[in-house]
Amino acid sequence: MEFTLERTVQILRATPVTLRALLGNLSEPWTSATDGPDTWSAFDVVGHLIHGEKTDWIARLHIILEQGESRTFEPFDRFAQFETSVGRTLDELLNEFERLREENIEALESLDLQPAQLEATGTHPELGTVTARQLLATWATHDLGHIGQIVRTMARGYSDEVGPWGAYLRILAS
User: Fold this and answer.
1) What b/e string do you get for 20-57 counting C-beta neighbours within 10 Å, with b at 16 or more?
2) pTM given for the model
3) Element housing 4 (H / E)
């Protein structure tokens, strides 16, 4: 599928709603389950998404548009949520994510990005030259990846409970 800003924003708007619908009324065993050591729970993923809203997507877009390749992006701390989410509830995290995402979508839309701006480049500390279009496509894809991660982790919580039907449930094997 070819990138459009409109389709990207559709996913960005849908993510908080999807997470609230999926996780909002679940008990803690569902939202704290992981796939084992060094893996993330739904709670951890929401914390990670919050950190991205605060420090990644819009901040990097501004760097691309205002400074181009002359300023390398700050490295993203993929594990910050393990400190910043301590003592908080999932409902608090979902509320904060919804608020931050709405603010960031408003900021994105206020830029009224034109095709040439989408091709503007910046410098990622590990990946090198990237475009604004790639950054925005990655933002939406990142959301989808983490939604999939949450669903897989939750499904695997019942992998022993489904008995022989596990052979038919691809989500348990992936």
Assistant:
1) bebbeeeeeebbebeeeeeebbbbbbbbbbbbbbeebb
2) 0.94
3) none
CB 139 within 8 A of CB 72: no
Q: How far apart are CA 133 and CA 137, in angstroms?
A: 6
One-letter identity of residue 36:
G
Q: Taken in order 99, 101, 102, 106, is the CA torsion positive or negative? A: positive
CB 90, CB 43: distance < 8 Å:
yes
Cα–Cα distance measured from residue 30 to residue 48, given in angstroms and rounded to the nearest whole number: 18
Distance, CA of 108 to CA of 3 (rounded, Å): 16
Tens of pLDDT along 3-45? 999 999 999 999 999 999 999 999 999 999 999 899 999 999 9
